[in-house]
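Appendix B, record 7
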Amino acid sequence: MDKDVAGLQFLRDGTWYNVPTVSNYTLLINVGVTMEIMTNGIFKGPVHRVVTNSEKERISVAVFYVLDPENAIWLITQMLNEDQQAR
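Structure tokens (predicted):
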């Protein structure tokens, strides 16, 4: 079952870490660099990948939603102060 087969990894300080499996029907939402832009870099967009398992089968479904390219993503101005200037 998919709950027993990991595959998602994230990169931190040059090392790839496995994301532990959670349960059946888990939904993972990765907002990526959108939140990094909106929070002025406070929240970082994760560098991630999915790897295969040569011994166990897994079903993964990737669905992407992309904002309208004609619209801009704006910074949340309430997150700015003297110590946190706009980038």
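Remarks on this record: The chain has one domain: 1-87. The helical segments are 32-38.
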